[in-house]
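Office hours follow-up: a student asked to see two folded examples consecutively, so here they are.
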Amino acid sequence: MTKKVGVGKAHSKIILMGEHSVVYGHPALALPLKDIEVVCQVQAAETPLTLKAQDPLTTAIFSALNYLEIKNQPISYDISSSVPEKRGMGSSAAVAIAAIRAVFDYFDQKLSQETLEMLVHQAETIAHSKPSGLDAKTCLSDRAISFTRNIGFKEIEVDLGAYLVIADTGIHGNTREAVEKVEAIGLDALSDLNQLGELSQKAEGALKAKDQELLGQLMSQAHNHLKSLG
């Protein structure tokens, strides 16, 4: 017997260093933003849900339903999110995580971390074409992480005694378009991507040394390489 409402939650994230270069196998540093949350509720409906193209939310729900081998189930969803969309804060990953958790909760099914990550990756692939996996991993973590695609991640200590200011330019970004734009540059992008990877490694050292000034300099250098990539 199913519950009347299934609930799933997830939090946001921010990439500190390694934006874009992480897609090409370079390390990146990312922080969970645990106070910025998404809550998804799944409940009964009169008609089955319709899959929307390139929509991580309904894609995530259908990925979960397919995994559970549930078809034509009349359900609906309600999403409440404090994560701003198209700002590089992991909105699509957080929404996908919350939605998958809500589906499993609604049908009283156990959800392992491994299965959750696999289903989120499916949804993110449709949303972003070639996700590194960093967004999902950080949105699932309670600690800052160092992440390398196809290798894995490790938790890192962040204790600088400083504030990270996240400013909104008001300009919407599109991860899929940005990744495709960098890919289109081809070999000419390699130098900037390699430098971004090296800066991430140096930034991890600066965090360990609690060197605020060096970290700030490295972040400025990384910004210049991102500008070079367009």
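And the second, which I mentioned at the end of office hours:
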Amino acid sequence: MSTILTVRGLHKRFGENEVVKNVDLDVEEGEVLVIIGPSGSGKSTFIRCLNSLEEPSAGTVVIGNGAATRAGDRRALGKLREEVGMVFQDYTLFPHMTILANMTLAPIKLKRMSKADAHSNALALLDRVGLKHKANGYPAELSGGQQQRVAIVRALAMRPRLLLFDEPTSALDPETVGEVLKVIKELASEGMTMIVVTHEMGFAREVADRVVFFDGGRIVEVAPPAELFSAPQHQRTRQFLTSVLR
């Protein structure tokens, strides 16, 4: 396998508050990396830095064999968005646009895809998650779980090399969590490279190749799920897992 993401010395500050502190990370192509940790630990800010939604204060992010994109290099950081897709916890669908229009806006504007190709691709992706019949509807007509499934395939419509998820089930009611996790599991089985920030420990156990425990703006521990959940090496990891798995 080849390395698809290389992060070195990543920092993010908001004024005097340093939220992400000197993070190094490598992700292999086809790997599913799940990030867990307490609220406020900086994990969501960290993945937002990976596709330049938050501009790093220092450090480098490299996708594939590309040149290092350094903090302050807006042109290079912006190009990351062509390689890295993101799914948010609150769907971020445009409410005034149909589902099909939500799906095709970025491929047409950013990828210069023809309207016909963008529509065909969008309908195929919607069909994949059982929502092709909703193509001409609006986000408000969908349940939370349906909106999140649309958000996932909207990200896929850009054909990213890496897909980021920021707590994709946290805004959902318990009955719809499973349908969203099912889509993510299917992507994992197909070899999609993903980084998933989540509080779903069962999902992390089942799907992750490696689990990252994030706390205080730093990576505390990284291990395969069988090791991290059964025999964590760091005391802070043990404290966290004892609390959330109780």
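Two things to take away from it. The chain has a mean pLDDT of 91. The two ends are 37 Å apart (CA to CA).
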